[in-house]
Amino acid sequence: KENQKAKGRLAAGLLVNLAASICIVFLNKWLYVRLGFPNLSLTLVHFAITWLGLYLCQALGAFSPKSLQPAQVLPLALSFCGFVVFTNLSLQSNTIGTYQLAKAMTTPVIVVIQSVAYGKTFPLRIKLTLVPITLGVFLNSYYDVKFNVLGMAFATLGVLVTSLYQVWVGAKQHELQVNSMQLLYYQAPMSSAMLLFIIPFFEPVFGEGGIFGPWTLTAVIMVLLSGIIAFMVNLSIYWIIGNTSPVTYNMFGHFKFCITLLGGCLLFKDPLSVNQGLGILCTLFGILAYTHFKLSEQESNKSKLAQRP
């Protein structure tokens, strides 16, 4: 019975993450395209609501905050800020398909960063799976009808900063002995403060098109809803990885990736050429091969541990 309850909770967690992750992409795209809501201002709303949500979680006893020095969290807050801003700018400038595929480049970039900066070694078969991923992303982006240099620049910067952030999150959790909720609790307000200083240089604050501009009630509700969904995405990612493994979460991510691509074609009429279709298949093949090898690697590690006297 307990096992069934655990499976039920996991299924519920996966469904929440699936719905929230897909909703956030389409809702943000809608806010940019249809309403022209400023990008950085939306990111600020996401950070503020994420911090408010975490504050409520710790008040309800979901986790205990750990005392950290601001200097310890600063590089993470900067990269956290950068990765959300650049991925949102990429979503604003590219089709949903190109935006999603560019994110797949995070895996090869993380492997490069860990190899060069941290001296980590990877088996040859893992490295080989990065070839179809990279080739697929290139094919899709090159043949995208809405291909633009600015969009690609944002996507590239987004991938670099996201990869750095993910590497640092793992390293910092280990180094500071904190979980991701405790880390995010410090990161979100620090990133919000950084954005408060940055926004006036890039976007209007008051008046037409500004965060405090004359927005309709529908726009305000949509922006707040987007922030709540962003918090749910962050929380459900933490919960799924905590209750399963990063590999399970990645496997689930590929399923979301396919649905989001399909949704982009249907909702925003993002056209797909044959070459783009080939690019998507190529990337998916690489991602699935990578996940398969990672899974078998974990299984062999488990059996080695079990065999030890």
UniProtKB/TrEMBL annotation:
<feature type="transmembrane region" description="Helical">
    <location>
        <begin position="44"/>
        <end position="61"/>
    </location>
</feature>
<feature type="transmembrane region" description="Helical">
    <location>
        <begin position="183"/>
        <end position="202"/>
    </location>
</feature>
<feature type="domain" description="Sugar phosphate transporter">
    <location>
        <begin position="19"/>
        <end position="290"/>
    </location>
</feature>
<keyword id="KW-0812">Transmembrane</keyword>
<feature type="transmembrane region" description="Helical">
    <location>
        <begin position="214"/>
        <end position="241"/>
    </location>
</feature>
<feature type="transmembrane region" description="Helical">
    <location>
        <begin position="149"/>
        <end position="171"/>
    </location>
</feature>
<feature type="transmembrane region" description="Helical">
    <location>
        <begin position="97"/>
        <end position="117"/>
    </location>
</feature>
<keyword id="KW-1133">Transmembrane helix</keyword>
<feature type="transmembrane region" description="Helical">
    <location>
        <begin position="73"/>
        <end position="91"/>
    </location>
</feature>
<protein>
    <submittedName>
        <fullName>Solute carrier family 35 member E3</fullName>
    </submittedName>
</protein>
<dbReference type="GO" id="GO:0016020">
    <property type="term" value="C:membrane"/>
</dbReference>
<feature type="transmembrane region" description="Helical">
    <location>
        <begin position="12"/>
        <end position="32"/>
    </location>
</feature>
<keyword id="KW-0472">Membrane</keyword>
<dbReference type="InterPro" id="IPR004853">
    <property type="entry name" value="Sugar_P_trans_dom"/>
</dbReference>
<dbReference type="Pfam" id="PF03151">
    <property type="entry name" value="TPT"/>
</dbReference>
<dbReference type="InterPro" id="IPR050186">
    <property type="entry name" value="TPT_transporter"/>
</dbReference>
